[in-house]
């Protein structure tokens, strides 16, 4: 008769080994960050979740908003399309130097936390390494040597959705969640 402790140990080791193997399957979770889901939320929802931010007329077809975290370390931008639905959501390290002090104050949101996380189990964030991305999401659609990795959302029955992770010094510097303008 086998001891239950040994069988459980073998099962846990096998699970740990298989969890480390990258998968090439498309992701199957909503493309969202800061409570905002691409292709679902409208500009009014963004304002309710993150505050007024800094409105930008030239983003998307119907404008968009820019937010800065309280510490001034990261930026979140939205671009709105038909019916002011968020069609693109960008999280990036740093704050654009082109903003005036007044614009920075207006864009600052106490509700934007760049370390919130995304990916499977919200395990990735700005600053995560390429290796961490591979372990969490598997290989990208294109060459892994590139600084921009693209992943598709595989469980959508309408317009295809995708996101791009951009690296700087082998760490995530920017993430763009996008749904094609419809």
Report the end-to-end length measured between terminal Cα atoms.
62 Å
CATH homology superfamily? CAP
> Structural class of the secondary elements?
alpha+beta
Mean pLDDT score: 84
Q: Share of helix among residues?
A: 10-25%
CATH architecture verdict: 3-Layer(aba) Sandwich
The description of the largest β-sheet is:
7 strands, antiparallel
- According to CATH, what is the topology? Pathogenesis-related Protein p14a
Q: Give the strand order of the largest sheet, numbering strands 1, 2, ... along the chain.
A: 3-4-5-6-9-8-7
Number of domains: 1
Radius of gyration: 19 Å
| CATH class designation | Alpha Beta
The shape, in one word, is globular
Question: What portion of the residues fall into strands of 2 or more residues?
Answer: 25-35%
Report low-confidence residues grouped into runs of 5 or more: 6-24
The run of helices and strands is HEEHEEEEHHEEE
Count of alpha and pi helical runs: 4
- Tell me the number of strands: 9
Structural summary, described in words:
A hairpin with a 2-residue loop joins strand 1 and strand 2 (36-37). The termini are far apart. The protein has helices at 4-19, 43-50, 101-107, 130-137, and strands at residues 32-33, 36-37, 54-56, 64-68, 74-80, 86-93, 148-153, 161-168, 171-178. Mean pLDDT is 84; it is low at 6-24. The chain has a single domain, classed as CAP (Pathogenesis-related Protein p14a), CATH 3.40.33. With 182 residues, the chain is an alpha+beta fold. The relative contact order is 0.17. The chain is built from 4 helices and 9 strands; from the N terminus they run H-E-E-H-E-E-E-E-H-H-E-E-E.
């Amino acid at each position: 008769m086998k001891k239950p402790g040994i069988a459980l140990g073998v099962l846990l080791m096998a699970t740990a080994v298989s969890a480390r193997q990258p998968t090439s399957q498309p992701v199957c979770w909503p493309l969202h960050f800061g409570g905002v889901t691409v292709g679902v939320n409208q500009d009014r929802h963004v304002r309710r979740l993150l505050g007024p931010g800094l409105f930008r007329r030239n983003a998307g077809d119907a404008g968009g908003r820019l937010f800065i975290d309280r510490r001034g370390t990261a930026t979140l931008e939205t671009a709105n399309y038909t019916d002011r639905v968020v069609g693109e959501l960008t999280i990036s390290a740093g704050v654009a130097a082109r903003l005036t002090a007044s614009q920075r104050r207006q864009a600052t949101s106490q509700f934007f936390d760049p370390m919130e996380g995304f990916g499977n189990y919200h395990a990735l964030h700005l600053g995560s390494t390429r290796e961490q991305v591979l372990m969490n999401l598997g290989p990208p659609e294109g060459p892994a040597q590139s600084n921009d990795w693209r992943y598709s959302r595989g469980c959508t029955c309408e317009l295809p959705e995708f996101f791009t992770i951009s690296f700087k010094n082998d760490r995530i510097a920017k993430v763009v969640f996008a749904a094609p303008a419809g």
